[in-house]
Design brief:
single chain; mainly alpha; 0% strand; elongated
Length: 228
């Protein structure tokens, strides 16, 4: 039996997804540490001028900021399970990589919230769960924009991909109108996420598959090779 069969949830696939999920949780923990540091540094900084924000109205879209992102998280797991199950581990690793890269940028670029930002500290979802993944001054770059956009890049079913792009644009508009991100945070999210996706595809994907195959051979003996 092919351990990497596209049409079956084999033990090898399950083990790979469990490992990737652990990697994703580790990335979120790094994000938590980086977010706390970004908050400390951001409080010492001053709000930066932003030409685009100065022309946009302030609109209270905090419900979308919180629950729109919650919808994305639910849809990301559901779509991955329904349509990309055989690539689930790969997608989880991609999100882990995106979170780690963003954590590095947060530490390197401490920024203060824009003037007039509508804080969401009182929202129940953020207080119970979101407080561990979302912070006051974790600005560069926008995770609300980048994470749905990565879903657009990785999903192969067209309508699913476009749904993630729509969520990304909706989140981009939301964070700008609520003044929870600068325009550079939103624009950079698209450029950095795409560059990261291309970098992984060009430089990391094949070595990962070779490592996966070598680990399988070591544990179970010779079997089918690189498949995905």
């Amino acid at each position: 039996m092919n351990p990497w069969d596209r049409h079956r949830l084999t033990p090898a696939r399950i083990a790979e997804m469990v490992l990737a999920f652990c990697g994703l949780m580790a990335a979120f923990y790094v994000n938590y540490l980086a977010g706390r540091l970004a908050d400390t540094q951001g409080e010492l900084a001053r709000p930066s001028p932003d030409l685009l924000l100065s022309t946009l109205p302030v609109v209270d879209l905090r419900v979308l900021f919180v629950w729109g992102f919650a919808v994305f998280l639910v849809w990301a797991f559901a779509a991955g399970w329904l349509y990309e199950r055989h690539r689930g581990a790969h997608i989880l690793w991609l999100y882990a990589l995106l979170i780690l890269v963003r954590s590095g940028f947060m530490i390197l670029t401490p920024m203060h919230l824009p003037k007039g930002a509508l804080l969401v500290d009182g929202q129940s979802f953020l207080m119970s769960i979101g407080q561990y993944i979302n912070f006051k001054h974790d600005l560069f770059f926008s995770a609300h924009t980048a994470m749905p956009y990565l879903g657009y890049l990785v999903h192969r079913k067209r309508w699913v991909a476009w749904s993630f792009l729509g969520l990304s644009v909706l989140m981009a508009v939301t964070v700008l109108l609520t003044r929870l991100h600068y325009s550079i945070d939103v624009l950079a999210a698209y450029f950095i996420t795409y560059a990261l996706y291309r970098f992984e595809r060009r430089w990391l994907r094949r070595p990962y598959r070779r490592l996966r195959h070598a680990a399988f051979v070591r544990l179970r003996g010779p079997g089918p090779g690189l498949v995905d």
